[in-house]
Design goal:
The protein has 450 residues and is of the alpha+beta class. Helix content is 37%, strand content 10%.
Length: 450
């Protein structure tokens, strides 16, 4: 295990009860240690992996929705399980194997526990809910959101299929795990979520409220992976028309704009004039789905994601709101904790809050800019780090941070960094024959030179 033990700070910043940072002066200075890029990457991958290893909900082995080191949980207790975040965590555990943080046997044992839990947990026409309790029962994300969540299910299945590819040609126990994962995947009734054969996928269905959430998923947003998996399902597939008419909005998705001198490639909002979304849109579907060379009739997905990340970087450099600290060492906006609750941060909805996952998970797209940010974070802003890596969000403008984590923000960090370093998850996921069938059905092509 190559965890780098660091003593970087001259002063430590202690958290006040109101979330404000307070300065404590030390009489003994600690000499700063200059770390190589590889050491920094090892360190952050270990810490963020550990959110899903040591920090997992113990009964299921899955990811807790949130972990608050201050032990303050204003709305839900710490054992709420997130299904989408757990999909990210399944992949993060493989980082642990590949980087020698844990053994392959340890990972297999954890995956067996997870799959056993998922086999018995509540499902709704094959889709898991957004949140689960440690006993496997659904708990409502909101009043009417107490049934199947197809987007979160897609994120979970992305992780499961990646694990399947990793183990499917291994020992008899590993092959058994792969077969059990295949049955879970085949149990998702993707086409049922077209609400009676409409040409669009719906996000939610509830046994109590039916389709009352009424959220047809049109792009562009974080949910591309849902449509690809739905098209590739060997048991409950959708037709191409669901993608073309629902997700692509009869071609309207291709009407891009230019922002900070860069083409957005696709229309980022179906019901909003905002030019670009939060950066998690460039991460969640692409933990396994390789955007390099990936194109369809509507766009070039490598260009889409590279420009998305660069627009956020350029916004921080331009800093039109004159927020304190913005620049090459502080950039990247996404949905995260914020000064007042949870918020969706993006360049045209900028509250002065930086979310580390935004720049760090963009490393395949902006390696130089992301590593510059990583180095600054670990060597100049280390008060913003805890046992599971960077805290969820902070604001130099408001002198604010909280020692709290969210699974959906921590999970993409080790996975996308690994895609930058080795391409591991892109290689695994894209080898899956069902995924390949989904891409072919929807008219995607893959070139070797993006």
């Amino acid at each position: 295990m190559r965890l780098i033990l660091m003593h970087l700070a001259i002063a430590s910043l202690l958290l006040g009860c109101n979330g404000q940072k307070k300065q404590e002066t030390k009489t003994t200075q600690t000499k700063k240690v200059m770390l190589s890029n590889e050491q920094l990457l090892d360190s952050i991958q270990y810490q963020t992996f550990n959110y899903f290893w040591e920090g997992a909900e113990p009964n299921s082995g899955l990811a807790r929705e949130r972990i608050h080191l201050d032990d303050i949980y204003p709305t839900h207790d710490k054992d709420i399980i997130t299904t989408g975040g757990s999909g990210f965590g399944l992949m993060a555990i493989l980082v642990g194997v590949e980087r020698n943080f844990i053994t392959r046997a340890q990972a297999l044992e954890r995956y067996e526990k997870i799959v056993t839990f998922l086999e018995k947990a509540d499902r709704f026409h094959g889709a898991w809910p957004h949140w689960l309790l440690p006993n496997g029962k659904v708990t409502a994300f909101s009043k009417k959101d107490n049934g199947g969540d197809l987007v979160e299910t897609a994120f979970l299945v992305q992780g499961l299929l990646t694990v399947r590819e990793y183990f499917k040609e291994g020992s008899s126990k590993e092959q058994e795990l792969a077969n059990r994962i295949q049955k879970l995947w085949e149990g998702v009734e993707w086409n049922w979520y077209t609400k009676g054969n409409e040409d669009v996928l719906y996000w939610h269905w509830s046994p109590d409220y039916g389709w009352e959430m009424n959220f047809p998923v049109g792009g562009y947003n974080e949910a591309l992976i849902m449509y690809i998996l739905a098209a590739g399902s060997p048991t409950h597939p959708i037709q191409k028309s669901v993608y073309d008419k629902g997700w692509a909005r009869n071609g309207a998705i291709a009407k891009d704009t230019t922002y900070y001198g860069l083409e957005t490639e696709l229309d980022h909002y179906e019901h909003d004039a905002s030019p670009v979304g939060p950066l998690f849109w460039a991460h969640y579907s692409y933990l396994g789905l390789n955007p390099k060379g990936l194109k369809d009739q509507y766009g070039d997905y490598w260009k889409l994601n590279k420009n998305h990340a660069k627009i956020h970087y350029k916004h921080a450099i331009a800093n039109p709101n004159n927020y304190k600290g913005y620049g090459e060492n502080n950039w990247g906006l996404t949905s995260s904790y914020s000064v007042k609750g949870y918020a969706g941060h993006r360049p045209d909805n900028d509250l002065g809050v930086i979310s580390p996952t935004a720049a760090l998970s963009s490393m395949p797209y902006t390696p130089k800019e992301s590593i510059t940010y990583l180095r600054s974070l670990y060597q100049e802003q280390d008060s913003l780090l805890g046992k599971y890596g960077p805290f969820d969000a902070y604001s130099h403008q408001e002198n604010w941070y909280l020692p709290r984590y969210l699974a959906i923000d921590q999970g993409p960090i080790p996975v996308m960094i690994e895609n930058y370093r080795s391409g591991l998850f892109w290689n695994l996921f894209m080898k899956n024959t069902d995924v390949q069938n989904g891409l072919e059905t929807l008219g995607f092509s893959i070139s070797e030179n993006p």
